[in-house]
Design brief:
By secondary structure, the protein is mainly beta. 0% of the residues lie in helices and 46% in strands.
């Protein structure tokens, strides 16, 4: 089971941008569907984006046009570019591998990276 380390979060003003990174340990990263989730206090983790092994992407409706997921298999890394940030994007963001978008997850959770959008 791979371990993941998320980074890149921070405090940004509405309309700003961030690029989140998730580095996974272990081999065979390129074989895995990768997903980004986010969680706010008192709520369950929400799937926001995913990318398959061949680059097919998925986005929840609320982030379409603003979030872009990508991967670099040579670096065992998946990215989430977040543009036009809104206060409602404030959350802890996590990555994980999944059997399919919205399907069972394969790895444990990392520590996440906090994104705070506030003026």
């Amino acid at each position: 089971q791979a371990q993941v380390v998320e980074s890149g979060g921070g405090l940004v003003q509405p309309g700003g941008s961030l690029r989140l990174s998730c580095v996974a340990s272990g081999s065979m990263f390129s074989w895995h569907i990768m997903t980004w989730y986010r969680q706010t206090p008192g709520n369950e983790r929400e799937l926001v984006a995913g990318i398959t092994t061949d680059g097919t992407t998925y986005y929840v409706d609320s982030v379409k046009g603003r979030f872009t997921i990508s991967r670099d298999n040579s670096k065992n890394t998946v990215y989430l570019q977040i543009d036009s940030l809104k206060p409602e994007d404030t959350a802890v963001y996590y990555c994980n591998s999944a059997t399919r978008f919205g399907g069972p997850l394969l790895w444990g959770w990392g520590q996440g990276t906090q994104v705070t959008v506030s003026s």
